[in-house]
């Protein structure tokens, strides 16, 4: 490695320490070293650089190499060359200001165990099968797939989704009524407020993140009470409603079939819309999953889903199945070109669906999560028989109802055990008037296999005594 202190005294005004790697192109190395020195502020704007000959001698380089490097940096705008006054660092080559990152408050250490809901088992992502699908999809994709994206999404994906959702979820649709998006959160942002202005009835317990989306969109939400049959849709007094009918999030019950019919009747009678969030519809362990409410009335139900639970929330692919009259308004919000869902992911998912890889993955992962849930139930039966999961055997989380007033204590005890998880209070709509429910929301999918027994152990230790 060539190193040199280039002390050019008044010419440079400062000592310049340049390090060039011993191998590789000398010219490129010198350019990189000078760029670094300017970027880091070691060479301030206006500083005059040493003449070619002296820098070449100091670094053991040919004079032309230095001349070339200066010329390149002049062309890039880092340096300026002025006839008769040599080469100087350009005035506008400002060093980057460091980004201030907020100081983390000293506090609780990172929890040792994670049973927070919302995360699938990241170690179970089907890497090999996904990669094979990506390769096949890329091999046959037409050239136009790599042009500007259609805001409806790739036709291959909409075709595959139409077939899959009809077969697996009882959705009645055609590819023309499907709009690809980056997930349910994106779907809600597309719909509200431009397509559906609100107010919007929502379940009293739901995802706070979704409530924040509505608040940011200026859409008022009205909480519907929940009981053992799901949301009390008979209390609906606005035309638009968002529900999680297959598996109420987070409390865990399905919407009773009378209420499914009632909510479909309500949106039909009022000219309203049900937005059906089918976030984990594929994961039912005690029976075949109940089909989507959308099948009852495709003209008044917007069906939204994504791969966030079935594959990974990082893939960022989802879909909206729309009533015919809402397709154009949603596309108008999306704009002329696809800006959210990348074509590589879309083509891969289309191939994964069409080849049966997605079904195989779902069958495999469903067994995995079913076993996870069974192990939770067994651990509770053995060590805390007074606590049982409520709701149906489905999804990636279970709710453990607790006696009134004990949720906070249990959460503190969990934190003491190094266990991260949420209580039901975190999901409650601030305006809800239904009686408070105490409980823990246990995401049994999240921990990697080796960590699950210890996480269950910590959970059982955190639960209040009988
Ligand atoms: C109720 C609910 N809906 C939808 C989703 C999926 O959201 P997205 O598709 O934006 O990742 C989640 C979380 O994964 C959820 O908890």
From TrEMBL:
Domain HTH gntR-type: 24-92
Keyword Transcription regulation assigned: yes
Keyword rRNA-binding annotated: no
PROSITE patterns on file: HTH_GNTR
Keywords linked to the UniProt accession: DNA-binding, Pyridoxal phosphate, Transcription, Transcription regulation
Residue span of region Disordered: 99-122
UniProt xrefs under InterPro entries: Aminotransferase_I/II_large, HTH_trans_reg/aminotransferase, PyrdxlP-dep_Trfase, PyrdxlP-dep_Trfase_major, Tscrpt_reg_HTH_GntR, WH-like_DNA-bd_sf, WH_DNA-bd_sf
Pfam families in alphabetical order: Aminotran_1_2, GntR
Family note: In the C-terminal section; belongs to the class-I pyridoxal-phosphate-dependent aminotransferase family.
UniProt protein name: GntR family transcriptional regulator
